[in-house]
Predict the 3D structure of the following.
Amino acid sequence: MLFGRQSDVAGKGWFRKVSGRRPWRLSVKLLIASSIATVIGFSAICTSVMLDMRRGEEELARQTLENLAAGIDADISRNIELYDLSLRAVASNLVLPEVKGVSKEIQHLILFDHAATAKHFGVIQVFDTEGKLTHDASSLDPAPEDRSDEEYFQVHRASPDVGLYMSRPMLRRSAYSIVLSRRINDSDGGFLGVVVGSIRFSYFHELFGRLTLDPGDTITVLRQDRTIIMRKPFDLDIIGKNLAQRPKWNPAAPMPASGPSIRHRGFTSGAAARTCSLSWSASR
C-alpha cells in the first residue's frame, strides 16, 4: 500500500522534476532601477518639503519686516507731526497783530509751547528775511546768529510752497540732527522768514535701540530723494549720502511719497541681508 501511494503521488506529479525551467528570481537590473527610483522619489519629496518650509520662512520674514517698518513709521510720523504743529503755531501766531504788540515775555509764552521742549527735540528758532535770529525758545535775549547760507533757508526763500522741509543730517548746536523748518508768510504770501526746529539723532538711537535684530539685519531711514537720514547699524560715514547717485540704484523705480517700504538686499552694502528702509517726504 505504501508503494502504491508513492506511485500515485509520483503519477500525480507531486515529485515531478521540472526539466528546462528555473525558479523565478528578481533581475539585478530591475532591483537597481527600483532602488534608484525610490531614492529619487524620496529626494523629490524631501526637496518639496524643504522648499515649502523655505517659502514659509521667507513669508514670515517679510511679514516681520513689514510689521517692523509699520511700527517705526508710526512712531516717527507721530513725533514729526507733533513737532510740526509747534512750528505751524509759531509761523501763524507770529504774524498776528495782537502778538506783535505785546511784551517780549508774553510773546515768548505765546509762540513757544512746552511740547517743543520734549526729549530729543531741538530748540525752535525764528529767522527773519535776512537769515538773522529774532526769536529763540531757549532765551529771551539770544546770541546773534545768521543762517542765510543754510540750505533750508534758501529753499524757503526761493519757494512759497515747500511746506515742511526736512534737511540733510547736520551738526546743530553740537548735536547731529535733522532740521525741520517752515516758511513764514505775510498776509499777501510774501516771505517774512523761517521757523526752524530739529530732531536729534539720539531719538533714532533710542528708537532703534529698543528693537531686537539679527546680526545681518539693517534699518535705513531715507529722505524722499534717497538721502540716508539714519541707519542701524549706525555709521556716520554713510549718514547723509544719497543712494540715488549709486550705480545700482534705479531712480526711476516707483517709490511711495512717504511711509514704509521693504527691501531684501542692503543698499549700502553688497552682502545680502534683510533690510527695512523707510522713505520720507515732508508734508504740506
Observations:
- The first strand starts at residue 125 and ends at 127.
- The two ends are 121 Å apart (CA to CA).
- Residues 74-203 form a domain with the Beta-Lactamase fold (CATH 3.30.450.20).
